[in-house]
Amino acid sequence: MVDAVTPRGPKPRRRFSRANVMLYGTLIVVALYYALPLYVMIVTSLKGMPEIRLGNIFSPPVEITFQPWVKAWAEACTGINCEGLSRGFWNSVQILIPSVILSIAIASVNGYALANWKFKGSEVFFTILIVGAFIPYQVMLYPLVIILRELGLYGNVWGLVLVHTVFGMPILTLLFRNYFTSVPEELFKAARVDGAGFWGIYFRIMLPMSLPIFVVAIILQVTGIWNDFLFGVIYTKPADYPMTVQLNNIVNSVQGIKEYNVNMAATLLTGLVPLIIYFASGKLFVRGIAAGAVKG
Amino acid sequence: MTSVLVKDLTLKFGALTVLDNLTIDIPEGEFLVLLGASGCGKSTLLNCIAGLLDPTDGEIHINDRNVTWEEPSGRGIGMVFQSYALYPQMTVAGNLSFGLKNARMPKAEIEKRVARAAEILQIEPLLDRKPAALSGGQRQRVAIGRALVRDVDVFLFDEPLSNLDAKLRADLRVEIKRLHHNLKNTMIYVTHDQVEAMTLADRIAIMKGGVIQQLDSPTEIYNRPVNKYVAGFIGSPEINFFEGTLDGQTFVTDGHEFPLAGYAFQGPVPTKGAAWLGIRPEHIVTGEAAASLPVTAEAEIDIVEPMGSDTLAWAKLAGQSVRIRMDGQAAVRTGDRITIGFDPARASLFDRASEDRL
Amino acid sequence: MSSSSKSRKPSGLFRNMSAKIASVPMVLTALVVFVGGTAWTVLYSFTSSKLLPKLNFVGLDQYERLWSTRRWIISIENLAVYGFFSMIFTLVIGFTLAAMLDRKIRGESIFRTIFLYPFALSFVVTGLAWQWILNPDLGIQNVVRQMGWESFTFNPLNDPDIVIYGILIAGLWQGTGLIMVIMLAGLRGIDEDIWKAARVDGIGTVKTYIRVIIPMMRPVFVTALVLIASGIIKIYDLVVAQTNGGPGIASEVPAKYVINYMFRAQNLAQGFAASTMMLLSVVIILIPWAYLEFGGKKRG
Fold it and tell me: Is residue A163 in some structural domain?
């Protein structure tokens, strides 16, 4: 009580302690670095070519133009073809929808069978499946060409759908198996006492209570399949090329003068679908990749 | 008449034997409790009866029908689970009627049965709710209702009260007893809680290592446990064991001699041998009343645990701690020297090697 | 003995029939594509198949040719450099960012969203974006020169010696967010009481991370490591989009080599041999890991 203040109540805290300034400072700098490419793509796609040649890639557009976006969508050329990215977009949609539905339908039933209806050997096949996820795709690419050719699906959209289903199976099966395993076993037993069978329990009990995991799987598959390049370039003909392949062909085409604004608009257009899903789904996206990764 | 017959049932998971050649005959209307520590095989046995696990060998008969290979839904059983296992996306009414719909029962009949079950369990106001909107006790009532609507002869309970708090558990226990009293169905009830077992059962089967140790009425199990394991498992606070030797009609332990006059031996009376003597804490008498008993001794109070209704005291006797259950009002303190005594007729003697009752 | 019964003895094959039918796609994928396909490729890597697969065995000829091809050697060197730095930087940056976000900061979800969004983008988009930013005439180099530093040189994509680092920058930008999220999940899984105990014991924050937290997060680091490693070996689209292997063949990678030989140069067996080498490298990485993770203890 001589000279100091009596300590009483909450301890005074310095808002701008050195540690805090360093923490937030570092985070902000790093965040700027991560955000920069997106920013550069956006401003470039909104500038005219003369402005790009003279200016600075970081400066905002002086005169905003949407011409590059229109051109990228409808007029950009890949070699001799000048239909823009729109064709690739629709190709991607045509590949995406059946692939997502088929891969999730099969993997969810697989995961359900593995979690609740184990049979002799089921774990062995599952182990092979998971180990298979680590095998570089390159080893299986050509055998799949042969399989698809035998099935008469090589070079068409359905062949690619099958490939996405096959390569999506390990991670999705794991996702669903882990989810269904976490459902209390007693629920499954109760349903069996109530006389429900394999499909009855799947459709009436499991499916209605696992909508969140289906959303996670859909997010995982939509971004994964939309972003695929390798399978698209190998298993489809140029007329059916997905958007990523077409984008690469447009931007890296050696003919003509480089129109960076159109290129960036095209790049953004291709990235738009996964970006929208990412920003809209937030936590579920994180949950999806974490669920997929942690056991991977 | 036999309701459930389990015959020579064996279940092995690989090299591990979970159930070992079990045979139980359960008469109609009996309330049988399967009691044991976790891992003793009691839930496994129940799951085998329900058809949720396939036995390695043996038969299961329900109502004189061999149902060993029958599907769970075709066995004429209803089952109540520990985690309630209510279907989360269905309403209470939906949960109750799911099994009946699967059996393609006419709609009118389903409604009649759901209404009846809801009335018995007093859950009528809850019929349109989802399980998430129910309390634990209400959920378990619905789970019981799900077994009730099936109108079956045999009810299986798999630790139904373990997820509830102490007070609710006591309430629902009474309700299950009342339900059995009214319905008079055969009920098989798995628990690790000896209070539930003692209060509910007509007969208790105490299991250990996949084998039934004793199958008897609660009083018989409490008073005349067949072996040391059963004696130690039943009763709380736990029974006191003295390690010693049998010398004629006397039990000798660490310098003390307990006369055994009045003890009812099983079969021939052994004269010599290593043995355990077990005496329950509530059968040890203190103070003046102790003096007139055949066995008396002096002991010093070590620790006192007052619990309101009664007081548990720990005393030193024959080189070990002895639990004594005293009246709740008993004024004892650590350090007190008291006289204790018991009647050997209420004790249990077990062979040291085989641990079987003598 | 037993009384009459309607139920039939369930024979082994037909038990769980629905489950078995439902598992047919999984069984086919596992056996035909994963096991069969891999075996097929390894087998044909010992042949002289050119345009079409043919079973005329030539022993290890394809492998000898592979290891005497400059393009393959460069691919392997690139993969080694990319892999080494990618591994280290991804782990360090991923963990540091996660640890900073775990300090109960304001705006955590905003920062997390920014760090992770590149992961939603494809490698093609990533490669093209960074190709533009690293453009020597109009990109970063140009901006710095405009600011007055005329001699500034930063042109990785056109310099054979450092082109792989240009790809590394893009790869790190795309992939670190994922590792950060995994590390963050790991940090969140650590008992709050550990921090309280460290505080009572007077151990500093950084020291607590290094001495207590990181050792506790061993499984998370292993997961991250396996994830990064399997991503590194697969690297293909990023290179195709950003440099297409250039300048010259300076930024070639094994996956690209395989696809070129299989689908462009029509020298199938050479592609098979290269892909078998990729498989071998995965096996060399994975087997010790699997041994450490699952060896000894039996899986349930």
Answer: yes
**Residue-wise pLDDT tens digits, C31-41:** 999 999 999 99
In a domain, A3, yes or no: no
Give the domains, in start order, of chain B with CATH numbers: 2-226 (3.40.50.300), 233-351 (2.40.50.140)
Q: State whether A42 and A170 are in the same domain.
A: no
Q: How many CB atoms lie within 10 A of CB C193?
A: 8
In this structure, the answer to whether residues A55 and A157 fall within a common structural domain is no
Number of structural domains in chain A: 2
Would you say residue C300 lies in a domain? no
Claim to verify: residue A56 and residue A187 sit in the same structural domain = no
For chain A, count helices (H), then strands (E): 15, 0
Judging contacts by C-beta atoms under 8 Å, the chain A residues touching residue B51 are: 192
Q: How many domains does chain C have?
A: 1
Q: Determine, yes or no, domain membership for C171.
A: yes
Domain ranges, residue A178: 86-295
Q: In this structure, are A29 and A104 located in the same domain?
A: no
Domain CATH number, residue C125: 1.10.3720.10
- Residue A40 identity: V
pLDDT score at C6: 42
Residues 6+ apart with CB under 8 A from C153: C141
Residue C34 lies in a domain: no
Question: Is residue A11 assigned to a domain?
Answer: no
pLDDT digits (tens, 9 = 90+) for B285-294: 988 888 888 8
Contacts of A141 in chain C (CB under 8 A): 258-259, 262, 275
Under 8 Å between Cβ of B347 and B278 = yes
**Roughly what angle, to the nearest 10 degrees, separates helices C108-120 and A260-281?**
130
Helix or strand run (H / E) with residue B66: strand B65-66
Q: Which residue has the tokens 């969004």?
A: C117
> Of the candidates B65, B70, B71, which has its C-beta nearest C3's C-beta?
B65
Q: Determine, yes or no, domain membership for C33.
A: no
Contacts by residues A33-39 (CB-CB < 8 Å, ≥ 24 positions apart): A33/C173, A34/C114, A34/C115, A34/C117, A34/C118, A34/C173, A34/C177, A35/C114, A36/C133, A37/C118, A37/C129, A37/C130, A37/C133, A37/C173, A38/C117, A38/C129
Angstrom distances, CA of residue A23 to CA of A20, B220, C97: 5, 71, 10
The DSSP output letter for C127 is H
Instruction: Give CA–CA dist B166/B226, Å, rounded.
Output: 30
Round to the nearest angstrom and report the end-to-end CA distance of chain C: 38
Measure the N-to-C terminal CA separation of chain A; round to a whole number of Å: 62
| Residues from chain C contacting residue A36 (CB–CB below 8 Å) | 133
Does a structural domain hold residue A117?
A: yes
A263 touches chain C (CB under 8 A): yes
Q: Do B66 and C8 touch (CB under 8 A)?
A: no
Please state, in angstroms and rounded to a whole number, the distance separating the CA atoms of residues C57 and A184.
Answer: 55
Judged by CB atoms closer than 8 Å, whether chains meet at B82 and A186 is answered as: yes
What is the domain range of residue C150?
40-294
What are the pLDDT digits (tens) for C245-291?
Answer: 878 899 999 999 999 999 888 889 999 999 999 999 888 877 777 77
C66-122 pLDDT per residue, tens = 999 999 999 999 999 999 999 999 999 999 999 999 888 888 889 999 999 999 999
**Does residue A285 share a domain with residue A166?**
yes
CA atoms of C254 and C79, how far apart (whole Å) = 7
Interchain contact A251–C (C-beta under 8 A): yes
SS3 label, residue B231: helix
Q: At A296, is the pLDDT very low, low, confident or very high (cuts 50, 70, 90)? A: very low
**Peptide bond before residue B125 is cis, with ω within 30 degrees of 0:** no
Which helix or strand (DSSP H or E) is residue B80 part of? strand B77-80
Are residue A39 and residue A167 in the same domain, yes or no? no
